[in-house]
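Help! Submission page says 'invalid entity' but I think these are all valid:
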Amino acid sequence: MTNDGTIKPPPAQPGRREAAAIDVAHLSKTYNTTRAVDDISFAIARGSITGLLGGNGAGKTTTIAMIMGLVLPTSGRIEVLGHPMPDESAEVLGRMNFESPYVDMPSRLTVRQNLTIFGRLYSVANLRARIEKLAADLDLVEFLDRPSGKLSAGQKTRVALAKALINEPELLLLDEPTASLDPDTADWVRQHLETYRKQNAATILLASHNMLEVERLCDRVIIMKRGRIEDDDSPEQIMARYNRATMEEVFLDVARGRVQETTS
Amino acid sequence: MSQPALVMGISPQRIAAMILRYWYVLISSWPRMLELLYWPALQIITWGFIQNYVSQNAGFFARAGGTLVGAVILWDILFRGQLGFSISFLEEMWARNLGNLMMSPLKPIEFLLTLMVMSLIRLVIGIVPMTLLAMVFFGFNFYAIGLPLIAFFCNLIFTSWSVGIFVSGLVLRHGLGAESIVWTLMFAMMPLACIYYPVTVLPHWLQLVAWTLPPTYVFEGMRALLTEHVFRADLMVYAVAINVALMIASFCVFLMLLKSARRHGSLIQVGE
């Protein structure tokens, strides 16, 4: 731990940057006088699932939005799949995708129409077959010809996930993927994400408030607080370091400033 | 972003996908389709009767048959051209779909080209029935204007797109709180573009302002054609020159506002 009470991220492993799906260095974002993200650096290995944790206003959404190119950083550098963002975004946008509660899909269009349009935007080959497969995988077959706006929250999340997977992305960015879902649907979505990662060797970065989700899905967790990285390690290592049995307890310790690190 | 980088790699497939998206919206809602026809029809009926009344009571208008009706149709091309562009853009804001598009391989230039095509499609749906009404009820054959009509149309549609690009940039940057600009900005042009009266009606200093607007040249050109039966090619050339400058300026402003929206995080907060 540093003398200002924060925990140092683990040292970068040799060769890690070369293999990184996302490489962020000294990234900061200031809105007027508010420092939303404050000099963060991390690299995410290809094929991994990383959780971005933190309370409201910790800087998770801003960080993901900067990685996607929706928000310009005040300073720092971002590389996605080996390309600097946002300068070379055209090189990578077709190889990544995202899902966020801050965006919707046109509600008047049917699920099939929405998926068709996004499939064409991403130049998906054999689009009809791809939509049929996604519909079968995500249990959307009976909703395909229903307007997206007339679906339940759980069904909408599955449609958003289908849109996020339409181009079989190498990199998937998810902001609260299971927010507002019942436990059964949430578990089902997690299962699907795990399967997708295994089958496609995809990289997933997800922001979440659901600690069970993080424990189950993530190889690595980056905890943010007030725009800074508070901790960065595997869930097991973090729980051991904080001497806690669950990530929920770790989260509360971090959120309430009760850092109880038991250094090894 | 440099100009060549913007133009290079334009994908007709992505533009077609976006046109399909707006087409789906259009055909999914009969009130939207009806609205496209309703206002132009109402306009032409109202102004057609005014034209009939005035032409029976004033020698000038009796000679200048169709000046008012022609002006109404050309004004609608200008106004509805911009609305057609901007409403398609607003559909994305209303649907909170802009983030999905900005994160997709769709390029800003492809998005703008799509909006231009949609503006034309909406215009055809609204204006063609309007011109038929003018022909049937008021004996004004808009298409009899002939080749000059192409020059009038192109100049007006390019102005409408420039305004559309500019106001879309404002909404992109400032959110739906700036939506009213979409509906009202074109009306600020109305008195200066001299739609229903010649430029000479304006005070001298205001005439100078009026001549900076391409539609002024079009409406003057239309009056010259209908009253004096002369096609003023010089006016059209001036209008084209100003339109080119306007289009480049509005496109640059759009890119600046898009960059500003990215800097301020407006793209992830698309509300008011």
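Support: the input was valid. A stray whitespace character was the problem, and the output above is from the cleaned input. Confidence is low (pLDDT under 50) at residues 1-17 of chain A.
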